[in-house]
Design brief:
It is a single chain. The chain is mainly beta. About 0% of the residues lie in helices and about 45% in strands. The chain is built from no helices and 10 strands. The chain has strands spanning about 5, 10, 20-25, 35-40, 45-50, 60, 70-75, 80-85, 90-100, 115-120. The strands form 2 sheets. It has a 6-stranded mixed beta sheet with strand order 2-10-9-4-5-6, with no helix packed on it. The chain has a 4-stranded antiparallel beta sheet with strand order 1-3-8-7, with no helix packed on it. A hairpin with a 6-residue loop joins β5 (about 45-50) and β6 (about 60).
Length: about 120
């Protein structure tokens, strides 16, 4: 079955960096768009970034543009999110998800992982 397993979340001080990973299995990874979303305490899902099947097209939410970088390694069936210049507002559970098409809107119809916690605090 489809599995998406996120890792790399941690506590980090403001200004720090983290790299999240999302290991995919159970489907043909290189035929799906992939994206990251996050959910802060008491808030809804926020779309962060989407990457195309081949990795050549990427788009970002304004809140993370210039600080976060999405990438993928289709040979390893893995999606990444490099997060730099982290701010307290980035504190959230981060999820990866797959989509058969380009999207900037999280959908309950898209398979999603269990999430990894990122806490930015001094």
């Amino acid at each position: 079955q489809v599995q998406l397993v996120e890792s790399g979340g941690a506590w980090v001080q403001p200004g720090g960096s983290l790299r999240l990973s999302c290991k995919a299995s159970g489907f043909t990874f290189n035929t799906y768009w992939m994206y990251w979303v996050r959910q802060a305490p008491g808030k809804g899902l926020e779309w962060i970034s989407t990457i195309s099947v081949g990795g050549n097209a990427r788009t970002y939410a304004d809140s993370v543009k210039g600080r976060f970088t999405i990438s993928r390694d289709n040979a390893k069936n893995t999606l990444y999110l490099q997060m730099n210049s982290l701010e307290s507002e980035d504190t959230a559970v981060y999820y990866c998800a797959r989509s058969p098409k380009f999207t900037m809107v999280p959908s309950e119809d898209d398979d999603r992982g269990q999430g990894t916690q990122v806490t930015v605090s001094s």
